[in-house]
Amino acid sequence: MSAESEDVPLYAERPEWSDVVPVPQYQGVDALAPINYSAEYQDATDYFRGIIRMGETSPRVLKLTRDIINMNPAHYSAWQYRYKTLIAIGADLTEELRQMDDFALTNMKTYQVWHHRRLLLTALRSRDAAAGELAFTARVLAADAKNYHTWSYRQWLLAHFNDEERLWAGERAWVEDLLEKDVRNNSAWHHRFFVVWSSGVREGDEDREAVGRRELAFAKEKIALAPNNPSAWNYLRGVLEHTKTPLSALTTFVQLYTVSSPSIAPEVMDLDNPVPTEGAQLPCVNALEFQADIYEQEGGTQITKAVEIWKSLANEYDTMRKKYWEYRIKEGLQTTHT
Amino acid sequence: MAPARDLRPTPTDGYPTATSFLQQDIEDTLLAHLPQCLASPDPTATQNVPAVLQRNNHMQYLLRNLRQGFPQRYTGQDASQAWLMYWILQAFSCLGVGMDGETKRRAREKLLAMQNESGGFGGGPGQASHLLATYAAVSALAVVGEPGPGGGWDDIDRKKMYDFFMSVKQPDGSFLVCHHGEVDVRGLYCLLAVATLLNLLTQELLEGVPEFIASCQTYEGGFGNASFPDWAFSNGYDPTTPRPVLGEAHGGYTFCALASWLFLQPYIRIRYQSTAAGISAGVNHVPPTINVRTLLRWLTNMQGTGIELGGFKGRTNKLVDGCYSWWVGGCFSLVDGLLGGASTATREPSNETATHAGNPPASTEDSEWHDIDDAIFNREALQEYILFAGQHPAGGLRDKPPKHPDSYHTLYCLAGLSAAQHRVVPDHSRRDDLLRSWNADTARGTAVVTASAGEQERLDNLRQESFLDALCWLEDEGADKFVGGSANRVNATQPLFNLTVTHTELIMAHFYQQRLPSRLPKTTSKSS
Ligand SMILES: [Zn+2]
Q1: How far is CA A64 from the centre of its chain?
Q2: Cβ A324–B81 below 8 Å, yes or no?
Q3: Are residues B212 and B129 in the same domain?
Q4: How many beta carbons lie within 10 A of that of residue B286, not counting itself?
Q5: What pTM was estimated for this model as a whole?
Q6: Which end of chain A is less packed: N or C, by CB atoms within 10 Å?
Q7: One Pfam family, short name please (chain B) (predicted)?
């Protein structure tokens, strides 16, 4: 460990902690699968168990728990006890939040880091703080664009404080920016769905049909940019399902992507059906699948066309999922025959 | 002649981004781990593939973990000690490694030291009770415990554990993982698995849980980690208000949500049957549903292509990782159980016979489903990923090369291998056998929560149906598939619990006080 640990005395050596009886970890004699703790960690956790036994909540507990989570950010009991202590002594929670910023940035993969912030924000009941947290999570996501906990925390912030002007308003533009940077960032696509569809109606989005058109146009434009991007196709499907729009509404668009090279006169610009980018590798699997789903949804004799596509997916374009396409064939045929 | 292997790189459409750069890197790495003869375009070269499960290496790795323990950098796992024990012990079960009595005794001692007086287990001795740790400890005890004094099982304080469970229950049907902790479907899965194993299920515990799970499914078909409760639950329950899912579809959460959904089937059948009969008027009458169609699509899409060696990823546009061999690969049996499970056939016998008039009862629809072959994912490819990329040359299994192995990935790669080698599915005749020998009195007698007189029958019913649904899963030995030959065989895994079928049976027989009928291997499905 660093020089720091040599300078700082153990809790066992500090007179101001002499009133606490340390409690060693009991795990039986000759324990299996032991972890070879450092002396510092063992010492701090011994005193932590001692503090729990006493039930003490005081400023020095904050120091102790901070020491422990510095050595082990996943020590949920230390986080839990720290939170209880903060509330019990009426600590400045905004100060706690700021103190934890750097810690969150270096331990962004740890659940507890984000949950702690959520507890603090709940207790603070401050929209200013919530707005600050949007900025903070944006910083984290700039460094780690798919961090699950950060995304889920951000979504919680938006829903919990639910402030149209200060929180929701900038959200769609912000996430669009992230998709601009990486159109394959599925977390950002999910976030867009969260903002536009799952969480009620945003201000200015009252005309749901217009919103539906806007979102389909957005997804199509992103598909045109990089057709083999399942995130965009999934979003497209999600919008159709959510708005109960039949898949066939997109037939013209999808057919541009089911052929190896679309025969389009370049001077004809159809804004509803953006053409694949020059480098597009076609036909793309998601488009073929979509086309087959259109046929299946149409039913009747169209099912033979669906089966044909499923066969081509099974045998040529998407052989890893052969079993799945064969299952779809069987299902599709069964449905039409009954 | 077998078609040449498809090793085309994932298309980037001439538009690379951060995601596609990472993807390309990993494809290069994985391709380098495919044996030369398999990468060759000549399909005749695929004979004698050197696909060997390095059993002994892995066993030695696990033994070192168990006996010598972990170096200081594992301090970050100090709150996961119950997990470390479970991962190691269940990995031994997969490999078919038995343990001597003294090792089992020491394991029990270590695990029981994590139990708290207030109920439940912590991540280590002296740590607060936590749903995940409780699952890990109880599952590990299923492996190393037995009934009677010193056997570990009777040292579990089930009444207090139940109280702990109720103390973390939330109005929206979710559970905090610990006091002041977060809500997520992993915790829910852990609670339901334990409550099923230990005979702790009650209507009260499960109220609202199906609705919560359904609210965690995303537009992609998989499940996220939780949903936002406050709008729908600000003033009683308003089912018309949104409960948005927090976090995108994810393999780990999807497994937990789906397995939870299966655990809840008996409750859902009883709960909504009763409301239909007008027993509890005034509550929502519509049983919650999940979209199995989009779920299945999402699950199959998580399997990487040939160049990714058929491993599984955990989210759309993320990289393959060995642990999803279980989290996603393990879901296919569960979907099977949901679509063709024993419970559906026995649930509504009148409907079944109405739609399939003239067919022999019960299992017809089920066997049709199984005839599709064996599974909807590529079982051989998943085994290849684990054998070629998942194994660390020095022992232990891993996320992907060139990463180091760890106990977590060792278990979930082995469990995934098991899910790809075997088919474990609900078996109707097994369910019938279990039902014939079911003793409601002894099961009630050993339960820790009693119902009021009016609720007694429903609680008995819930207990019985949960027991039957959990224990009717059997290995279909005719459907085994071993890449690299049967020397690579690992034990079959019970899809709901990630324990062996035998360990599941033993611990449940104990906590429900049932005598189990002996079982014969099931080898029927290939015959048709
Ligand atoms: Zn992993």
Answers
A1: 32
A2: no
A3: no
A4: 9
A5: 0.94
A6: C
A7: Prenyltrans
Same domain, A112 and A81: no
pLDDT of B356 above 80: no
| Contact assessment for residue B258 and residue B341, using Cβ atoms and an 8 Å cutoff | no
For residue A162, give the chain B residue with the closest CA. B231
Q: What is the pLDDT of residue A120?
A: 98
In angstroms, what is the span from residue B302 Cα to ligand 1's centroid?
A: 14
Q: Domain total for chain B? A: 2
Determine the residue among A181, A184, A208, A288 to mutate to test chain B binding: the one whose Cβ has the most chain B Cβ atoms within 10 Å.
A184
Question: Residue A62 belongs to what domain range?
Answer: 1-91
By C-alpha distance, which of B524, B511, B469, B513 is closest to B494?
B469
For residue A325, being part of any structural domain is answered with no
The pLDDT of B68-97, averaged and rounded, is 97
Catalytic residue among A84, A109, A305, A311: A109
- Most distant pair of Cα atoms in chain A: their distance: 86
Assess B117–A contact: CB distance below 8 Å, yes or no.
no
Report the SS3 class of residue B494: strand
pLDDT in tens, A290-316: 999 999 999 999 999 999 999 999 999
Separation in Å, CA B93 to CA B474, B493, B497, B502: 17, 9, 13, 10
Q: Is the pLDDT of residue B504 over 50?
A: yes
User: How much is the average pLDDT of A114-138?
Assistant: 97
Asked if A52 and A153 sit in the same domain, the reply is no
Burial degree of B231 (CB within 10 A; 0-12, 13-18, 19+): middle
> What is the band of B112 on the pLDDT scale with cuts at 50, 70, 90?
very high
Number of domains in chain A: 2
Same domain, residue pair A101 and A163: yes
Reported as a pLDDT band with limits 50, 70 and 90, residue B286 is: confident
**Distance between CA atoms of residues A110 and A104, nearest Å:** 8
| Rounded Cα gap, residues B214 and B227, in angstroms | 9
Letter string b/e over residues A185-208, b meaning 16 or more CB atoms within 10 A of that residue's CB = bbbbbbbbbbbbbbbeeeeebeee
Mark which of B236, B256, B289 sits at the end of a domain: B289
ipTM of the assembly? 0.96
Higher pLDDT, A248 or B366: A248
The active-site residue out of B409, B428, B430, B522 is B409
- Helix axis angle, B456-471 relative to B501-511, nearest 10°? 160
Which residue type occupies B25? D
Q: What sign has the CA pseudo-torsion B97, B103, B108, B111?
A: negative
Cα distance between residue B295 and residue B287, in whole Å: 18
Token readout for A33 is: 């699968």
What is the whole-number distance in angstroms between the Cα of residue B324 and the centre of ligand 1?
6
The pLDDT tens digits of the residues spanning B161-203 come to 999 999 999 999 999 999 999 999 999 999 999 999 999 999 9
Any domain includes B132: yes
Closest chain B C-alpha to A306 CA, distance in angstroms: 16
Residue with tokens 């890893």: A320
Q: Are residues B175 and B280 in the same domain?
A: yes
Catalytic residue, candidates B184, B336, B406, B476: B406
d(CA A141, CA B513) in angstroms, rounded, equals: 52
How far does the CA of residue B325 sit from the closest CA of chain A (Å)?
A: 15
